[in-house]
Amino acid sequence: MSHTVKHASKQRIERTVHPVLVPLIHNQTPDEWLLRIALAIAKNRRTYVRVIGIVPVENPEALSEATPKVQIARQNLQSLAETYLGEPIQFDLHVRVSHEPWRIIQEIVIAHDISVVVLRWLPGHSNDVYGAHMDELLGLIPCDVIAFSGPPPQEVKNILVPIRGSKESALLIETALALTEALNSRITLLFAEESQSEERDEAIWQEIERSTRGHRLVTRRLRVIGDVVSAVRQIAGEYDLIMVGVAEQRAGSGARRVGAIARGITEAVNTPIILVKTEYRPAHFEEVRTRYDELELPPSPTSVIVDRWFAENTFSSDEFSDIAHLVDLKREQGLTISLGLPALNEEETIGNVITTVRDALMREYPLLDEIVLIDSGSTDYTVEIARDLGIPVYLHSDILPQYGTYRGKGEGLWKSLYVLKGDIIAWIDTDIVNIHPRFVYGIVGPLLLREDIHYVKGFYRRPLRVGEKMQAGGGGRVTELVARPLINLFYPELSGIIQPLSGEYAGRRRVLEQLPFYTGYGVETGLLLSLVEQYGLSSIAQVDLRQRVHHNQPLPALSKMAFAIIQVFIEHLEERNQVRLLSDINRSMKLIQYEGGRYFLEELYISDIRRPPMATLPEYRKAFGLNTTPDEGDEA
Ligand SMILES: O=c1ccn([C@@H]2O[C@H](COP(=O)(O)OP(=O)(O)O[C@H]3O[C@H](CO)[C@@H](O)[C@H](O)[C@H]3O)[C@@H](O)[C@H]2O)c(=O)[nH]1
Ligand SMILES: O=C(O)[C@H](O)COP(=O)(O)O
User: Fold this and answer.
1) How confident is the model over 101-155, as pLDDT tens digits?
2) What's the gap in Å between 269 CA and the centre of ligand 1?
3) How far apart (Å, rounded) are the C-alpha atoms in residues 500 and 531?
4) In the predicted model, is pLDDT for residue 366 greater than 50?
5) Taking CA 73 as the corner, what is the angle to CA 498 and CA 442, rounded to the nearest 5 degrees?
6) CA-to-CA separations, 282 to 20, 288, 600, in angstroms, rounded
7) N or C of the chain: less Cβ packing under 10 Å?
């Protein structure tokens, strides 16, 4: 799958031709140079360049600690993408973290049928940015490799290409010609032979002459007696760039190594060097590929999966503050975005929520295509305020009345899928006191940036109001005392989600319509559990919305919320383990009340009903143009 933000090229690209991969290692590479080399090859081969970002993490540091670096790397990649508009380059904005970046490169080479990888080589250095030394790396990457070493050249007029007729020669000549064409430079071919008498050498020289004869970019052909490293050392000063084949040697257990000539040249001169290694393609090449394909890596422990997810899928809302850019992304992808506002008696805050979001994200920038209030039966002025502001209002009991109606926020959200029109649906709570447009653009941003993300949750620091005082970080009582402990116990893959109960989230309609919705406060929990079960952790992302201040409910109300959330966990566990744990008796809760110096018990019936996925309703399928009989996959 591609996670493309800018597939900028208007040029025709032969999709069947294997792309060129540039893995940019955070803070390590002269990016522009690698891209120039890759582009020259890609254009020559009528294919495109795929750029990925990798943040290497040193063992034993946890991958999650790289989260801020990933955010910076993602921004760098986006800025780079801007400068390559119109070029055949695909920037993959899923920046990876790894203790062993070579594994990521290997996986992508296989998954995207990459033909050439262009990367950075730091010879003599502990080349651990890839988690493997160059010698190992060449054997681990199952395709051609072009490695750039030395300082990036300022200007390239003359390129020196020592050539020996090894199996690297074809790629070497191809790369040299492509680059020379792109840089408007000239090539000198250098052929060094040990002694003049070798018949084989004569044949190679003839072949070099024949294959490059008449080529306007090859302006000199030098034939010298002696060892090539000394020959290169003598004339290197006249050249801006040297290109050499690594002429791998097979060593011991079949490992590949950078050959002595390539190594000798890199050690002998300070000139920038490009090393070229041709994939070892014996007759049984396909077999080699299959071996890589079947590579069985030990499964990562859940804590590593969570750590990686946390680093790769945690965003900052600041990454999306350029709203004009988000609008561009939305248009490029032909998407529409709806904002649903669930409300029950929010007259104090609803007006400010609507105007703040509408002014910034509809009037100033057309990010949102509609804002709709979904009311749960407010008895205050919530509905009037929204109507006065010109916002469409639906009473949730009036939507799909043939399916009956339940109380609760989740019921409102489920039914809102039927009235909202967008491809992306965002919901935010309407009791937010410190509302800011980032509460919306933050949750929408990752969906516009990465196709592989289907659902984005907001998170924030949560102060708690105690009397007139605000206690920093004391909020989220149900989150911390119920939801997160249960997640860690039973759904540890979700344990990196900072605010599982947050009311600010956005998802793709085609995914949301496949999920069951709980009718009350269990809705957020139910959506997360279903998402991870049906679409996997990697479909979820989270975004930092900084701080959220809302109306804190009293403890008894939170007790009921906690009860509903625990029910959702149990129902999912029942299904997962094929056991029955809940009966009707478990649906009531005795709340302890204390009034006038006495205690008494209040019995409450609390049960979130599970609504089926919207896509199973014929009315919905008709309204949204889905085929009339639900597919098997549409069932809950
Ligand atoms: O029947 C209802 C009840 C509430 N709401 C609205 O839903 C939002 C959140 O309700 P609130 O009572 O403020 O919930 P919190 O105490 O803030 O609970 C947190 O945890 C809940 C359980 O996960 C989430 O539903 C909330 O969004 C999240 O803010 C507000 O805009 C309400 O007006 C409705 O639309 N219908
Ligand atoms: O998310 C939660 O835990 C509940 O909404 C309670 O939040 P509060 O403790 O900030 O009021």
Assistant:
1) 999 999 999 999 999 999 998 766 555 688 888 888 888 888 999 999 888 888 9
2) 67
3) 12
4) yes
5) 45
6) 21, 9, 83
7) N
DSSP 85-117: TTSSEEEE---EEES-HHHHHHHHHHHTT-SEE
Beta strands 393-395 and 370-375, pairing class: parallel
β-sheet bridge partners, residue 147: 119, 275
Residues in CB range of 253: below 8 A, 6 or more apart: none
CATH superfamily of this structure's domain 1-143? HUPs (3.40.50.620)
CATH placement of domain 155-278: 3.40.50.620
Q: Is the ipTM here above 0.95?
A: yes
Ligand nearest the Cα of residue 502 is 1
Distance separating alpha carbons of residues 48 and 44, to the nearest angstrom = 10
Q: Tell me how far CA of residue 20 lies from CA of 41, 46, 51, 86, 482, in angstroms.
A: 8, 10, 8, 17, 48
Q: Where are the domains of the chain?
A: 1-143, 155-278, 312-551
What distance, in Å, lies between the first and last C-alpha atoms of the chain? 25
Answer whether residue 64 shows pLDDT above 60: yes
Q: How far is the CA of 346 from the centre of ligand 2 (A)?
A: 17
Q: E strands of 346-392, at which residues?
A: 370-375
Q: Looking up tokens 């090449």, which residue turns up?
A: 285
Ligand 1 centroid to residue 460 C-alpha, Å: 16
Distance CA 172, CA 166 (A): 10
SS3 374: strand
Count Cβ atoms below 10 Å from residue 549 Cβ, excluding itself. 18
Distance CA 507, CA 519 (A): 18
Atom of ligand 2 nearest to the CA of 551: 11
Side chain identity, residue 95? V
Equal fold, 1-143 vs 155-278: yes
Ligand 2 centroid–CA 166 distance in Å is 68
Full-model pTM = 0.91
The amino acid sitting at 483 is A
pLDDT tens digits, 328-349: 999 999 999 999 999 999 999 9
Output the residue whose Cα is nearest ligand 2's atom 2: 476
- Residue of 431, 435, 479, 565 to mutate, ligand 1, most atoms within 8 A of C-beta: 431
348/467 Cα distance (integer angstroms): 18
- Tell me how far apart the alpha carbons of residues 521 and 398 are, in angstroms, rounded to a whole number: 20
Q: Is the CB of 558 under 6 A from ligand 2?
A: yes
Tokens of 211: 């294959």
Residue whose Cα lies nearest atom 36 of ligand 1: it is 409
340, 372 in Cβ contact below 8 A?
Answer: yes
The domain defined by 312-551 carries CATH number 3.90.550.10: yes
Cα separation of 58 and 218, whole Å?
44
State in Å: Cα 555 to ligand 2 middle. 10
